[in-house]
User: Fold these one by one.
Assistant:
Number 1:
Amino acid sequence: MSNERENSRAVGPGHGGAPKRGVKIKGAGAKDAKKTIKRMMAYLKPHWFKMAAVCIFILLATAGSVASSMFMSVLVDDYIVPLTKMANPVFTGLFKVLCIMACIYAVAALSTLFYNRIMVVIAQKVLKDIRDEMFEGMQRLPLRYFDTNSFGDVMSRYTNDTDTLRQMMAQTLPQLFSSAITIAAVLAAMIYYSIPLTLVVLLMTFVMLKVTGKVGGMAGKYFVEQQKSLGGLNGYIEEMVSGQKVVQVFCREDETKEGFDGLNEELCESATNANRIANSLMPIMANLGNIMYVIVAIVGGFLAISGWGGGLTLGGIAAFLQLTKSFSMPITQVSQQVNSVVMALAGAERVFELMDAEPEDYEGSVSLVDAKYVDGKLTEADGRTEWWAWKEVCEDGSIRYTDLMGDVRFKNVVFGYNEDKTVLHDINLYAKPGQKVAFVGATGAGKTTITNLINRFYEITEGSIIYDGIDIKKMKKGDLRRSLGMVLQETNLFTATVRENIRYGRLSATDEEVEEAAKLANAHDFIMRLPEGYDTLLEGDGANLSQGQRQLLSIARAAVNDPPVMILDEATSSIDTRTEAIVQQGMDKLMQGRTVFVIAHRLSTVMNANVIMVMDAGRIIERGTHEELMELKGRYYQLYTGGSISELDMQ
Amino acid sequence: MIKKLSRCIGEYKKDSIITPIWITLEIVMEVIIPMVMAKLIDLGVDAGSMSAIWKYGLILLVCAGFSLFFGVMAARSAAVASAGFAKNLRREIFHNVQTFSFSNIDKYSTGGIITRLTTDVTNVQNAFMMIIRVAVRSPLMLIFSIIMAWSINARITMVFLAMVPFLGVAFFLIMRGAFPIFERIFKTYDKLNNVVRENVRGIRVVKSYVREDHESEKFKGVSQTIFKDFSKAEKIIAFNGPVMQIAIYTCMIGASWLGAKLIVGGSMTTGELVGIITYAMQILMSLMILSLVFVMIIISKASAERVCEIIDEKADITNGKDPVFEVKDGSICFKNASFSYSKNAEKLCLKMVNLEIPSGSTVGVIGGTGSSKTSLVQLIPRLYDVTEGEVMVGGINVKDYDITTLRDSVAMVLQKNLLFSGTIKENLRWGNKDATEEQMVRACQQAQAEEFIEKFPEKYDTYIEQGGSNVSGGQRQRLCIARALIKQPKILILDDSTSAVDTATDCKIRAAFKNEIPDTTKIIIAQRISSVQEADMIIVLDDGEINGVGTHDELMASNQIYREACLSQQKGGDFDE
């Protein structure tokens, strides 16, 4: 029994999970704990019928075990002792009672089976619901959340933290319930036999609980320490192993080892402390139980022999002693579960924290609909018409349709990632449908930030962005983003086939459309060279592809989406010049008839732009066509000629 | 495998051995205690003798005291031994990883190495603790309890023993049913992790294509599989308890029946009956725990194998005999060098490369995606070994150098460059532990990093977050260059290391190289023609082969790939930040 906890931990899914980092086991206030428990209970609510069944089965199972601990004294007093006094003992009575007991035991065993089986399914179902809810909620979190929370941290909420809940629900909860029933039943029996002895037992129990609390508290403290040093070590491992190649290039192996050894030693120490205490709990509890036994025997013997016990018989003491053992067992079990409860509460808190994070507001009064012209009037269509319109529900309930054209205007836009630091100052710009706007400027000038505002990855602080004459704040976020194509700085592919990755741009795209898009992005050729062409499975963010190939795929993905507005953020930066020339042709085709915002690196891109915005320190400092800007001989000219300008890279 | 792992017990051998001893003693006490309890009842309570109660009560207390002492001692030494074992195991792995070559690292992948160092070690550690504590405890308990029960009454004990095969078969069936499912679950968990990982990493893509629901569906699919499998497995495991109960209850009824007859017959006391039932419980409990230990060991076996695999991995790049400890100059020579990442690949990344690079020259490397530019330069500091042919630095084959000596002389700024958490100074000191303040400032000036460092409020003491996430891409690249310069290398390799630096700064960095470290051989991989235009020698790579070598003018005249690239970039004017 002493190892149940360890076992279940090993069977659990800590397996492929992220390292447990920074698991905080706060001494959560009783109020918080209560709230957390209440919330967890809410997940059990839909299963109330099954839960009720579980309760009944636990009751039956517990009754069986209580009966078995009482049975001994009955057996001895009512059957064996009378039998010994008979000249010709008849065993039929004993046989009968044993048969009855066998039935009770059978019911108990079956009940145990039933409640275990029902409970594990409920627990798993609840976990699934929690995970799903967590993931669904996470999809709606603003980017800001992902900027400020590390991946490992988010990850461990899905694995380590939910796993603590599994243990709690599948094991701890039934155990606590059954222990409580056992304790109550045994206590009742004890009172029936002797009140004074019961008082002795209760006193000892009090001591046992105190000791558990004390030891548990100590273990908890060391446990937190252990988690902290584990987090530290894992962090170090992650950083150093990720940078292993750099370590080698700089011959820093010895220093790296040294750093590791220090943290490793620290962890060893705290782990020793935590385990030492946790391992000690069991012998301490068991032997306190033994001591209780002795005290009860002595006090009971004294009472019975002196006759002060109020009719306490010697047989009664024997029975009581048996009860004492039955009593200390569930107490020990409960004390063992304390740790698991504390951990589960900490886990649950972290899970709920993720769920409670403020989501993005997706709602808006303007949505994107398939449209058609009927008698020269724009109306909503049922099927896909390759023509879209913004449908605005006005305050008075009337509906207004506007063509989706791709006209984007920034009006006095001010933005900062946090309140105290403004990144963009007073940005004014417009792009008429089909126009191409190129941004150039140094790192940190705010080019990427501007593009992140159009699709409302971040919300602007002041000013407004008007899209086809409508403030984007009024638009449903999903629809706004659907109307914008994006090729981002970092390509992210998913574990799926090449075809599915491209189709990510528009799930309804046919195979032909996917291939067409790939051809447009000039990705078709290299895809055909892959072992299974379009059905090649990409894994680990497309690790089996080169950087350039991954970018071609992400361009194809945008192409299949076929949006009226495109945002290209350094999309071609690591495609070599030859490949890029090919991509460029495709991109040019893609850009035709679309409004394009491009963060530019290449001369050809800027040359084709209708307007170039030269950005510096969050401001547009020059604007115009290539010729106009060259004429101006300003910052653009300096950038273009590669002439040295000291402030060029100022942040 | 066991031999290898047990080596890691090392200095914790004493604790590892003493744990079972303490446990044995504890068990002796635990076995004696029910016996004393039986006597207490028979001779004390039943006989109504207060003095016997006192006597056996005291004995019991003493036993309990010893049991507690042994138990706590066992707990202590088990904790020391297992934590120490895990520590050694981790150290063994980590230290071995430090000897790994690039190809070793590629083989395991960063994630693979991290998992082994964390989750797998924890699994093995738990199994180890189980072994020294429970694997000793349960069999001993089993044996002692059987002996004790036997000494009370052999016939009743036979009933208990009859339960053993029943339990054995039942547990075996349960495990056989559940184990494959658990294995499958672990795999599904990996999948779940993967979905979350890709989702978090690619959240911008998800959001810009409005694929939130699609992602949720995907996730739900995986979580549904986990739900189904886990429920299935746990439903099988749920048989454990009832099976155990059946065994215990059968024993109790059997013992009661036989015991009653014996007591009536006068060959047994009631106290003995109570005692023998206690032993029955202990016998069955130990069996159950034994079966659980067995499961745990099986589960951790996979982890243990993964751990051993990485401990066993031999670095494939090591010092040769009598290594050379000095690099004469920065000249480089490739002789019929061919290279492929895997040993038996049909396709070579580099084919028969022949190159002669004089010391102190500036060399540009240009080529399309996948043309093996990086592969080429990685051979110089011997990050990989050539498959065929040889690479020489300073006139000596790189394989003959002491690796540290070679890499100290060849500084390389990797394409995927990284900074580590720590101050700028600490990061710079990676290049040279004893670098002075002036040296650092100097290197930063050359790398054009000084101006932005000076703008940070804490200047050189600015704390860099893990991976350098709090500086911009261009700044990171310049810091990485400065870090390499501090080594004062004979050869400096920049693998596309200024891609996020604007053209003007790039130009200044190159000028600094030219003027301030003229004796260092500089190899620059670049996408931009302007970055290599002025090099003494430009190498054009195409699909792992040298397509052309020469100066800008020569290549413009003779090399089609170069000319195309150049024309498409025109005058070298582009707008990389």
Number 2:
Amino acid sequence: MEKEYKTISRIAGPLIFVKKTEPIGYSDLVKITLPNGETKTGQVLDTSEDIVVVQVFEGTSGLDKEARVKFLGENIKLPVSDDMLGRILNGAGKPIDGGPEVIPEDKLDITGAAINPYARASPEDFIQTGISTIDLMNTLVRGQKLPIFSGSGLPHNEIALQIARQANVVGKETSFIVIFAAMGITNEESQRFINDFEKTGALKRSVVFLNLADDPAVERLITPRMALTAAEYFAFQKDMHVLVILTDMSNYCESLREIGSAREEIPGRRGYPGYMYTDLAMLYERAGIIKGKKGSITQLPILTMIGDDITHPIPDLTGYITEGQIVLSRELHRKNIYPPIDVLPSLSRLMNLGIGEGKTREDHKQASDQLYANYAEGRDLRGLAAIVGEESLAERDRKLLKFAGQFEELFVRQGKNENRDIREGTLRIAWQLLGTMPESELVRISPEIKKKFYSPWHQA
Amino acid sequence: MGNGKLFRISGPVVTAKGTSARMYDVVRVGRESLMGEVIQISDDQTTIQVYEDTSGLKPGETVETTGLPLSVELGPGLLNSVYDGIQRPLPVLRQEKGDFIARGITAPGLDRKKKWDFKPSLKKGDEVKPGTIIGSLRELNTEHRLIVPGNIKPGKISEIKEGSFTVEEAVCRLDNGAEIQLMHKWPVRKPRPCSRKLLPNIPLITGQRIFDALFPLAKGGVAAIPGPFGSGKTVTQQSLAKWADADIIVYIGCGERGNEMTEVLDEFPKLIDPRTEKPLMNRMVLIANTSNMPVAAREASIYTGITIAEYYRDMGYSVALMADSTSRWAEAMREISSRLQEMPGEEGYPSYLSTRLAEFYERAGRVVALSEREGSISVIGAVSPPGGDFSEPVTQNTLRVVKAFWALDAKLAQRRHFPAINWLTSYSLYIEGLEGWFSEKVAPDWRASISSVMRILQEEDRLMEIVQLIGSDALPERERITLRIARMLREFLLQQNAFHPVDTYSPPKKTYMMIKTMLRFAELAYAGLDEGKRAEKILNIKAKDRIGQVKFEKDYETFLKGIEKEIEREFREL
């Protein structure tokens, strides 16, 4: 039986320092019992012959030197089973929906291991999200990790929910199960997620991990690992296609920084620890497809950019690990356009693997390129038009200016429950918009494609 | 002997007491024998960076030294392999341990069972020393030359055998008792010696017009290539790997995305070497250490790659090494440095960042190997500056050592200009050194023609600023002609279709003749203007627009000569 120690020598922030222990394993799980019987859990962050440093997930408030510390001699593990579907768990994996404990089929180490690059299969199945700006211009493919870069007050959660509701792979009648991990979001936001899940019946094929704003910050460090461990179980042991939504990764990084400074580490950029890149990579890279396995993990992390600054270390490092990003724009949001996705800085690096003939349609790439080009030019012209007036612009420029406006109104804007089919919906609108431009202006599109799909659109 | 005990574990950096391991020695840590490397020694404490996850390690577990620094196995079987950063073969790991990289697994870098047909080129009594080639064997389609390793004392051959051997069997004995096998080990952080270094004055011909003509790389040269989002870096790298006239390609995926590495691992084996019609992988070594694999192995991957490159260089081959990306490597250094609680330099990078970068790039070069054969390593290092900011330390320190910079430009890629190399911000300092080669092997006025091309392109950039203000119609006639010629240069010369069977490779001679034809048009056009001909008429000359078609012609000489005659005829008829 494991020994209990009453040798806490120091308590600082979320950390406790325990003296005179037997050899304790690094990253082992720790159980702390307070004199009043309350228990807390923690994890070993640093272990040596002299002293063991433990981070306490529930925070150290109420702890004193009288508390008893027990080292469990194993890594943090998540009990997994099919019964997890439909359940709501807290950030540490305990049920909080009033239901019974999950009877585990297996217990999995939440750290996870890197997928052997040689074992990975290339992602190539188009996921239709029903959102035009994503489907046509920043296509999501199965096995991809595509974050949403948002700002405080923008409707990233609605978009995530809409994707979770609507995502499917056309032609393959398999739906996704959704693993939802909330880190430090408000109670209200989480209510909305859960209500939505319940209303649409999606909860039956979801697992929800909730670490709310008033839950211990340190717990946030294990919440995404729990979620991804569950995802790996369903994807690679149960052959399911899993969509993982992680929100909000900025809160996760804040916790990482908090632990770093409590340990008195030398900070890196903006006070975040130097290992944040590797730490994030170990989460984000747990997406993908494995050769010979039927399931897949697609990740949709959400992060709020601090001060809308895309060069801030969190979005910056994230962008270097994920395969692109969906960027939300405050300007579009102010114009009351939903979803306020700014396509210009958005990108899907795996898009080309999932589109084209046999997957979506042969004109997909070219139509997307042309929309990008026209919208970019049209937006640039807004500045000029503001100075010289719209009337003094050349005919072509006026058309482009109008194009940019209509693009936002007709293509970007859509309903929160509007699920646009790629061919019948999204591409149809795209060609309508392209129809406002003279055929000769569409230089990104080959003559054959134009012949097949182009027709001038005269508006009333 | 020399076994120590773990004292402290804190992430991937652990401390041990009582071990006799020397600096940079590889050690085996704990019950699971995790692989680690000594990175600091102070008093009785030895700090070790562990290449694997350290969860569950306890103080008091043993630390066993191997007595050797981090080394790679060099011998036949490297080509067509896919390794992680510490030379563990990934396909073997998958076969033995499944889809995830478990802890404490080891697999030798070279296949121990495979037999190779060795043929000696020396005989009993011949004198050998480190670097001497004593025979060869066939490794796929490469002649693999067996070199006397550096740790063998000079001596006379007392026995040398012909026949089939595994990499561990001795094929040669010396009179001083030394045995030579097909395989030996070399510490990765130590450059392999060579006889002397040569000046980089032979180009690495890539068949890509923008590189060969405007920004050439010398054999043994170093180039940096930034990879902004969506700029077609992968296609550019594949074109280079396919067409560069290097015998061996080493590709290091250092801290790359898993799914992108998959693309490399899927795509490269499909590529066919255009020269031999055999798979390109037959002369490639791939190293894949994705961002979530242990950070210490990422740090090591760059050294593993360049050591393998040096090994083939020593056999007398020209090797091209691509490192993608060196920024991820620098970040690994930063991370380890911060774990060691070292005082950080700029942006948290260790103060020795510039030294490490310079040391790495210095291992490139064209050399006379110890075997007196000439070999080279050309390094193409990708940098990925955060937020696209070129003033950050890794980019800046890289630019200080590299002599060629190929600025991949996402804007060009969006305009579908491929390869998306910006001709205004790129540069190559090798042009001068390579002038002699080009004027001898291609054409005496190579350099002068290239300079004319650059002049016109720079002129265009200046003119475009004016055009944006006042429109092109307001330009003088001469300038309008210049703009047209510049456009021809951009579209016909700089753009190249990597997917067209003919255009994918443009020999220097063809590149030169294309330039000459366009310059001939320029010459006639300016002369025509001086004679009072109207710019519209000159711009209407039809034959000039057909120059671009030569991209897809195999018999380019006849084609271009025909066009030139046509252009001249049209000018006469104006």
Number 3:
Amino acid sequence: MSASAVHSLWTTAAEPIGKIDAPHIEYGQLAPVLIIVGAAVLGILLEAFVPRRARYHAQLFLTVVALVASFAAVVGLATSGYATTEAGIVAMGAIAVDGPTLFLQGTILLIGLVSVFTFAERRLDPEAHGNRVDSFAAQGAAVPGSEGEQAAVKAGFTTTEVFPLVLFAIAGMLVFPAANDLLTLFIALEVFSLPLYLLCALARRKRLMSQEAAVKYFLLGAFSSAFLLFGVALLYGYAGTVNYAGIAEVVDGTIQDIDPVLAQTMGNDVLLLIGAAMILMGLLFKVGAVPFHMWTPDVYQGAPTPVTGFMAAATKVAAFGALLRLLYVVLPGLRWDWRPVMWGVAIITMLLGAIVAITQTDIKRLLAYSSIAHAGFILAGVIATSPDGISSVLFYLGAYSFVTIGAFAVVTLVRDAGGEATHLSKWAGLGRRSPMVAAVFAVFLLAFAGIPLTSGFAGKFAVFKAAAEGGAGALVIIGVISSAIAAFFYIRVIVLMFFSEPKPEGPTVAVASPLTMTAIAVGVAVTVVLGVAPQYFLDLAGQASVFAR
Amino acid sequence: MENLIALLVAAPLLGAAVLLCGGRRLDRVGHVIGTALAFASFGIAVGLFVDMLGRSTEDRSLHQHLFSWIPVGGFQADIAFQLDQLSMTFVLLITGVGSLIHVYSMGYMEHDERRRRFFAYLNLFLAAMLILVIADNYLLLYVGWEGVGLASYLLIGFWQHKPSAATAAKKAFLVNRVGDIGLSIAIMLMFTTFGTFAFGGVLEATGETGEGKLTAIGLMLLLAACGKSAQVPLQSWLGDAMEGPTPVSALIHAATMVTAGVYLIVRSGTIFNAAPDAQLAVVIVGAVTLLFGAIVGCAKDDIKKALAGSTMSQIGYMIMAAGLGPIGYAFAIMHLVTHGFFKAGLFLGAGSVMHGMNDEVDMRKYGGLRKYMPVTFVTFGLGYLAIIGFPGLSGFWSKDKIIEAAFAYDDGIRGWIFGGVALLGAGITAFYMTRVMIMTFFGEKRWQPDAAGNEPHPHESPKSMTIPMIVLAFGSVFAGGLFSLNEAFVKWLEPVTEFHHPHPVISVPAITASTVVVLLLGAGLAYLQYGRRPVPVTPPKGSLLTRAARRDLLQDDFNHVVLVRGGEHLTRSLVYVDHSLVDGVVNGTAAGFGGLSGRLRRLQNGFARSYAVSMFGGTAILIAATLLMRAV
């Protein structure tokens, strides 16, 4: 950038203020996001002004109402044609409201709603000094094991801040797949990441582990954000704009007038390739693809289980949404460059996730590696670069996320004196002691493994079909092999639950409130319905598979 | 009228469903319901027949499309029926003889406590057999084919408390399975070759298809026919199938089901016409079986097994005729119908004898029964005269034509061989049938009290049993003559099966004369051996051939040594390979992945710094790979 260009940048700020036009904002089409953000802000105010006793119910009510209202807004937009004919770019080019956006926003909101139910569960842990408690620390700021913590527990504190936090996270996730320029993308990423870092640190039991997980997640997340931001800068240097459509035009070489200020760097493919790779890396980190996956097992294990469920489901949906939009809107002209690289990432992600999961002994870590393998399967659909690829990924995300939330919700039920009993050896013979819970968990495991008549099969079939039709036959073969490896450890848990002798001091299955039960029931229902009659939802995803440019 | 076709099947199917689902409440009336529905089906058949006679020859083929069964892209399977002259013939035979045997069973099974179930199975059989012969495509035919197999299995093993009956049922089922594989492969081949398995489509398309494929399809169809019609080499089940109640033997294992193979070959005539090699194989199978069955029939002392050998042999005639092509199709079917009458009559007669003799089946313990059972004696005797081809009776008209057609196979040595075999078979038929006749109804009484001291009191059977026998005897006597009047039967079938006049290597009167001579010779020999001398109650040791024939010409021994032992060795070696090789590979793979997993998980060491390094390295590789892709 030349000195004169820098000068001109300085001087624009000096021009009269009256020349700045008020931005045009389409409030209606942004309503889902605005409702959530508004409710989150309101939640902070509740935290400040509502008496401690009433906070839990007030927050829960507000959160559920906000999520339902926002979901209604999404459905309203979709039925008004904003997913298809009316799809377009809003908020001065910052946000795209189209089929994938609305499909993913709807999915995220439902995930959020079900997750909030598990967040609000207060019957699993024994009462502390006459107060019902949830999975979260009495006081997040108290040092673990300190007198301050004891006092907070004795006083019956609960961290009701988790509700506004989760709303902020959801707001970021709603924007993430809708972001239509790189800066919005980055801001959305941070908006949903920061609350998640906090939530990870808030486990009531095993607090040190929880805090360690949060710190790791934060450090590595910040590290990956830096890469992403650097990638944004490089792409701006390449294209002279952060707008998706604008970058795509430069990539395709269809742009008419080149900004003289950026003429030297514009169209430099090295900038483009490095920048694109770095942004991809930032997104692959969020979906937990190898080799950016290492935070996943540690964080999944350390975070409070309801948070793990929410994170595992919703983050994946949001991040894959953003990845799809980036690859299909910004970089389709570059697909001959990114496809082979993504091939490699998908293959090692599937294989490594499946193989390392074999030797896991902790159920939460096992599910973490399983989520890595699933990220690989979804990547196979992403690589297809076809409308079928998009719709199959959308379907897979919907199917997978409800199985995940359900599975983690079951994990919260199996407890012993030290809280959740996550070591696999303690799950031995669970099927004898609690046949219903074990059977439900078995359904989820079968869905993870992709056994027919579960949503997992329909999803896997859809992405593999799309990938095979997109010319990625080898990828599909490796995917199927990985599925076979993965089936081993899923089935092993089933065998453990049903065909092993229960241990004498094994864990008990806690009786949960209707909240968690609802979450599990929704998980089972979605798993079975999407497995037995997937066509309606496949069609829905198919209709929602066109990106607005 | 075509809308009535489905009712043919619906009536007995309804009967089976009602009787099976109705439970014990229907125990007292079950047999009436079953018989009534069989007659209903027969009534519909007669109505359709009269209607068909009223039409001109071109309009006689009726068609009813019920619904699309399996519509998947280019794979169209329909539930659709076709009633042409060939099917009509079968429908009349099946429902007619079937109804008579229902009536007979009312008497025969009177004291059986599972009578309702028996009639349910009989109805089920009728429904399946009707589907088989009126299906308009091979896939639906296959449904009927399997259906009759099931009914046959259930009825052979009807007295399942007897281990021999249970074993026989299983044996029939397994042997039939081999044939069924042939049919399923044939259907698959048809679909890949012609893209359809509707009769119309397949038979039209044969003209444009290579002979090799048609030969393959033909041989597979022949395999199917061998299984269902008890032809060599899949004949071993029929003798044991006589463990079933005698009405079953008469209906399923003599008159109808076992002739399904003949129907299949005649129905697929166009394919065989275009595949001479397959046709030759059919003729050879028929010729071998007709001798095989006849020889076995000569040695059996069990009256039903002797008749079973005879059935095998007579179906051998039909298969042989069907293999002769257009000169034989009509006669194959004609013999099939006349055989349906006289063989069903003979079996019912045998059942009547057993009924009066405390279920004794050994002919050496009969003798002189003509005085005790006059009706049975007369009807059985007429059936006997018909089957040996006594001039003027049914068997004479149909069998003589087959022998003529066999002599007309070609002008050379083959015509002589096949004609000679057919002629020889006629002689042996006369021998073994005369033997059965003499041992049962003539000579001294040879029965003795059984172990419990009950001496049989031979008596005539009730009316419900004798009336069907009398009706069938009429058929045995007159059917052949009626069919041959003015070549009525041949002309009736000609639009479906095509007909060429045979031109035998020797003149027709000479053939007829030698047939009569041969049968007199056979009957005379039997009279010399069994009529002139007393029949020993304990069988003599007999020659090597006799002993082999008593053991069904060692077919079971052959199957045991070659198939059962061979199969055992094969499974054992497969199990060994499975344990050592397959399991080795599988377990090795699992162990390999387990080890790999153990090593890879060490990368996850818990240090954020290591994770960051791996992310950094990963990004570097990502960038390098992206740039590299552009460079290459």
